Amino acid sequence: MSMRHSGIGMTSQRTRMRMVERLREQGITDERVLTVMNTIPRHLFVEEALSSRAYDDVALPINFGQTISSPWTVARMTELLRANSSLGKVLEIGTGSGYQTAVLAQLAQEVYSIERIGSLLTRTRIRLRELRINNIHLRHADGLLGFPEVAPFDSIMMTAVTTQVPESLLEQLMIGGRIVYPKGSQKQNLCVIEHTSQGFIETILDEVKFVPILSGVISK
Ligand code: SAH
Prior knowledge:
Elements (H helix, E strand, L loop, with lengths): L5 H20 L5 H9 L20 E2 L5 E2 L2 H12 L6 E5 L5 H7 L4 E6 L2 H13 L5 E5 L12 E6 L8 H5 L1 E12 L3 E9 L2 E10 L12
Parallel strand pairs: 3-4, 3-6, 4-5, 6-7
Antiparallel strand pairs: 1-2, 7-8, 8-9
Helix pairs in contact: 1-2
The structure holds S-adenosyl-L-homocysteine.
The site of S-adenosyl-L-homocysteine has 25 residues, from strand 2, helix 4 and strand 4.
InterPro entries: PCMT, SAM-dependent_MTases_sf
Family: Belongs to the methyltransferase superfamily. L-isoaspartyl/D-aspartyl protein methyltransferase family.
Subcellular location: Cytoplasm
């Protein structure tokens, strides 16, 4: 961790503990998720000018018109994806800051994460390398196509909102696996899709607010 962050690092330990207590009060019950979020330095995933607000329960801008999801959103989506069992091999669509990716990596075997904005991914790649998280594989591509070369996945998380999960992603989900994503457009809700031997079962949950999923890639 670089020197310029070390001062913040000292105080953020306590701030992080308070964040975790708040998450518990807000109904997060998966202790493994809470433990992981207690260890990951969230302030390193936002611009330095915003690092004092990194542990507040808000989404913050991360450039290119994108946002890092709020702590509650990250915790809730991770707990829904885990459902108290192993995450196994995970596909994440929308790497963004890489914070959610880092949380997943501590609870999964391997995490494959796809981001469509090249410059955003370049920065995130450096950040995750500095934190020495080694079971993350980043890819600059359109996540709507999934990652057929390494499919099928045990778990898939989308961190941008869509009205419908594309067929290509459903096909890359193992039987017994699940997808968590924000569903909708104006009004949005977290949604869980379970892949059973009988087919796909969808459950609509908490109301949320996400940036939209877009197709295609941009290099800048
Ligand atoms: N989990 C991230 C969320 C970032 S916002 C974080 O907390 O930092 C959602 C991200 O999804 C953005 O970075 C956006 O560029 C990306 N995204 C949107 N559509 C995409 C697509 N089709 N493929 C890959 N990434 C996409």
